[in-house]
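Everyone, study these two lines:
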Amino acid sequence: MGIGQGNGAGPAAYAFLSAILIKVIASLGYGVVFTTALSLITFNTVCSMFVDDCDLWQSATDVNEKGEDVVEKIQEEVATWEGCLAASGGALSPQKSFWYLIDYRWTGDEWVYRTKEEMPATIQMHDEQGSLHTLQRHEPTHPEKTLGMLNAPDGSMESFEIDEAGEQIRVGQIPYLQEKVAEFTTKIKAARNTLPNDVWVAITSTIMKTLEYPMTATTITKQGWDEIVKPLLRCCLPVVGYSQHFPRAVIFGPSEQGGKGLMHPWYNQEQRKSWVVDSRLSGGNSLSPVLVKKGWVDGGANNVQEA
C-alpha cells in the first residue's frame, strides 16, 4: 500500500514493507538456488524487486526433477505472493504479468531448451476484482521488457518470431535500440536552425546514454553495435559539420589524440563489464549466477489505492 507519490518516507516504507513480504516467501521454502560463475558460491534467493516490478524465482530441488514438476510449486508461490500483497493493500495485474518455464533436454550433441509444447503448463492469478486469469507464458527465447531492457532467459540479444498476422519479425534488445536511434534521428531531421554543437551535445548526452544504460547486461557484438550506430552517424555527422563518411577511427578516437572522444558502444560495453568484475572481486562479492533449472515469474504489481 503506497503512502503517496513524493513522500520523503517512500523509500524507507518500501524497503520496510517489501522486506516483510520477501521474508514470508523465504520462510515457506520458496526460491531458487544459484551458483556464482567465478567463486562457485551457492546461495538461495526468492525474488528480485524494483519498486512495483518483481521477478519471483523457483527452482527444481535436483537436476533430475523435470520442469513440469516445478509448476505446482510455482503456482503456490504466486498465490502466496498474491495473498501477501492483498494483505498489505495491493494487488497483482495479470495483464502486466508473464512467466517462463525453463528446462533442457540433451540432443546427443548439446543441451537445448525445452519448448512449451514439450512442457504444457499454466499459471493463474487473481486481479484486483478477484477474477482469475491465466498468465501469458513465453518461450525462453522470447524477450520481455524489464527495467528498460528487453531480456530473454536464453540471453539472446535478438531473435525472430511470428506475429499475429503470420509475419516474421525481429525482437530483442538490438531491434529495440535501433528503434531508439531511429526516433532520435527523426527528431534531428525535423529540427530547424540547430547549431552543430547542440546536435553533438545531444548525441553524447541523450542517445548515447540511452544506448549505454543496459550495457552491463548486454552481450551485443561489435558488428551488432556498428549496425545500431550506423544510421545515427549517417544522419548526424553532416549536421555537426562532418561528412557522413568521415573516418570512424577519428570519431571514436580519444580527444587527447585528436579524435572526437566518442566511445564506441562495444568498447564501452566491455569496459563496463570489466568494471563490474573488478568491483565484485575487490569487494569480495559474488558474481552473476549460473542458472541450472528454474521457474521465472514476472509479476506486474498494481496498487489499487493509487490513481
Observations:
- The longest strand covers residues 294-302.
- Residues 286-307 have pLDDT under 50 and may be disordered.
- The chain is about 35% helix and 20% strand.
- The helical segments are 10-27, 71-87, 173-190, 196-212, 222-239, 248-251, 265-283.
